[in-house]
Amino acid sequence: MPKEFQQWQIDNIESVTDVKEIKGADHMAMLYMPKQLCDTLLEIVQKYN
Q1: Secondary structure (DSSP) of 1-49
Q2: Which domain of life is it from (predicted)?
């Protein structure tokens, strides 16, 4: 998905209230940076739990 379209979704979909970016993760964070993805998901869970 093009970065521009991702940004458009963030800007135009009202239900999007929180966005996390994993720098350098490419399009498959689970393959390229699994530790950083896990840390980010845990951060989100802790915020909303």
Answers
A1: --HHHHHHHHHH-TT-------TT-TT-HHHH-HHHHHHHHHHHHHHH-
A2: Eukaryota
- Which residues, including other chains, have CB under 8 Å from residue 32's CB and lie 6 or more apart? 24, 25, 26
Q: Which amino acid is at 41?
A: L
Residues 7 and 1 sit within 8 Å (Cβ to Cβ): no
Do 16 and 10 meet the contact criterion of CB atoms below 8 Å apart?
yes
Question: With the CA atoms of 39, 44, 45 and 46 taken in that order, what torsion angle do they form, in degrees rounded to the nearest 10?
Answer: 90
Instruction: Flag whether the pTM goes above 0.90.
Output: no
